[in-house]
Specification:
Helix content: 40-55%
Order of helices and strands: HHHEHHEEHHHHHEEHHHHHHEHHHHHE
Number of helices: 21
Shape: globular
Strand order of the largest sheet: 1-4-5
Strand content: under 5%
Structural class: mainly alpha
Bound molecules: protoporphyrin IX containing FE
Radius of gyration: 22 Å
């Protein structure tokens, strides 16, 4: 591990790993040791798969065997999940100082050695640490709601809203030390999984070799903050419901979907629970069973203070998701367009950057290196191909574009608001969906005129998601 970055850089990691002995997990005792082993092995696994000229579709026994064992024990998939790269991959710089302070955090492992990579992980660590006290706080609120104790529920909701505002401030510090271009081109490819990665060079997934000779291909999503259990806790405790990706609220909204793909039936947010440590996912299930705050507030609508506190918490969480969309735009959408603008032809770009790519169905002009050009684009300037692209859009692909997915999650966050004005405020459409969207209109990153943000229709793949061609962009952890 001490040489991991150098071995990746020199493309010698595979040779070294192939010659390693297969280590036993017998010496691992405490949870902390198992977690450390999992994190180390995940870094080695993704370095092995993605750290060559083309991806490796096999993981040799020195990594695969212990990785399968520790994953089983920790109830996580054998890939670099959010737990592997964030939750279990940090240390305090000074043990007597809190870990919700970015100035007291360091990473244990990175693929690149870049400060940008450390910062990317540490922002999440600080958010988790600062957000953690919300869990006991809202458990208190649940108990108080059972006792019909309006004052305590109101107090807890106010504190929740205030702390969510803190989390937004931490999220916005991403820009300080993580450069979007480095993130997009250097860090993100290592986080990619093995699911729907045909165009990245993993048509079947990855074989975890255990020496039995009977192994079959496995496919997993890569690592993403969508695997954070605390955000799902926030949603559950506030009674926010996330519909399957692409599904609108009610039949009345259907008319607003003209020209868009039919909804996908997968619920990405739910799927991501399988990438959380088992106890986290079970905890969320338990909370779901006792969550009563929304019902309580709805039953006490006449209590203005309670309603305001609840709506404020929703509004803060919605605003956090809004800021996150801005970040995704800056770190994925804009860099993907810059790469696109630099390339001579879409075909050439697709070949060169065919890493960390996902697409649900292999189709012309879909995805590359975490970048998926829409079919319209892949037709280049050819009007005939453009027509084809349009056809594709109308037909739909059964998936959803990244920004549409994130916007849906954001908008669903405001839906339970009790006060009429708050509900209207949070369901407002900032501008017409699609072109000239608010974040395209006001990039916090100067847009190069030749890149033409807002005029091209580029799509990128995500961290854990396959985000298809019908809208704007894809995500990070390729799903
Ligand atoms: C450079 C920074 C970031 C980028 C580029 C980014 C990108 C993405 C992408 C592409 C997705 C869609 C799922 C996927 O494909 O993986 C996603 C989802 C998500 N991200 Fe981020 N993310 C970043 C930072 C963060 C941070 C710091 C947090 C908070 C700890 C966060 C929280 C979430 C959550 C909760 C979701 C699930 C969707 C939702 O609940 O709204 N992200 N992110």
């Amino acid at each position: 591990m001490a040489n991991l970055q150098a071995l990746i850089l020199s493309k010698r990691l595979r040779g070294v790993v192939d010659r390693l002995p297969v280590l036993s997990t017998i010496g691992l005792e405490h949870d902390a040791e198992w977690r450390r082993a999992y994190s180390l092995l995940s870094f080695m696994a993704h370095g092995y798969i993605w750290g060559g000229d083309s991806p490796s579709d096999r993981l040799p026994p020195p990594i695969a065997v212990p990785l399968m064992k520790v994953s089983q024990r920790l109830e996580v998939p054998p890939v670099a999940t959010y737990a592997a790269v964030c939750l279990w991959n940090f240390k305090p710089l000074f043990v007597d100082e809190p870990i919700d302070n970015l100035e007291n955090l360091a990473t244990l492992n990175t693929f690149t050695g870049a400060l940008d990579e450390s910062w990317f992980y540490l922002i999440s660590v600080a958010i988790e640490a600062r957000g953690a006290p919300i869990i006991p706080l809202m458990l208190t609120a649940i108990a108080a709601a059972r006792d019909n104790d309006v004052a305590t529920v109101t107090r807890c909701l106010r504190a929740f809203a205030e702390r969510l505002d803190d989390l937004s401030s931490l999220l916005q510090r991403m820009n300080e030390s993580c450069d979007p271009i480095i993130f997009y081109n250097r860090i993100r490819p290592f986080l990619a999984g093995s699911k729907n990665m045909a165009e990245a060079g993993l048509p079947n997934g990855v074989i975890y070799e255990d020496g039995s000779g009977t192994e079959t291909y496995q496919q997993y999503s890569g690592g993403s903050n969508a695997q954070s259990s605390i955000f799902q806790f926030f949603d559950i405790v506030l009674g926010i419901e996330h519909r399957p990706t692409g599904e609108k609220r009610g039949p009345g909204d259907e008319s607003g979907r003209k020209g868009q793909a039919p909804p996908s039936k997968h619920n990405f947010i739910m799927d991501m629970r399988r990438y959380m440590p088992g106890p986290h996912a079970r905890f969320l299930g338990d909370i779901q069973a006792v969550s009563n705050i929304r019902e309580f507030v709805e039953g006490h609508r006449q209590d203005v203070q309670l309603s305001i506190a609840y709506d404020a918490a929703l509004s803060m969480l919605r605003s956090l998701r809004d800021k996150h969309i801005g970040i995704v735009t800056r770190y994925i959408v804009i860099p993907s367009r810059e790469v696109r603008a630099r390339s001579r032809s879409p075909e050439a770009t697709r070949r060169k950057l065919n890493l960390a790519t996902a697409s649900r169905q292999p189709r012309p002009g879909v995805t590359m290196s975490g970048i998926a050009f829409s079919s319209e684009e892949s037709g280049g300037g050819d009007p005939a191909r453009k027509g084809e692209g349009k056809q594709d859009r109308l037909k739909g692909t059964g998936g959803t574009a990244l920004i549409s997915f994130l916007k849906q999650a954001r908008d669903e966050t405001g839906e339970p608001a009790v006060e009429e004005w708050a509900r209207r405020f949070m369901s407002r459409q900032i501008r017409s969906e699609g072109k000239n969207d608010f974040f395209f209109g006001k990039p916090d990153h100067p847009v190069r005129p030749d890149v033409g943000v807002g005029t091209e229709e580029v799509e990128v793949a995500g961290l854990a998601g396959t985000w298809t061609m019908d809208d704007d962009v894809g995500g990070i952890c390729n799903y």
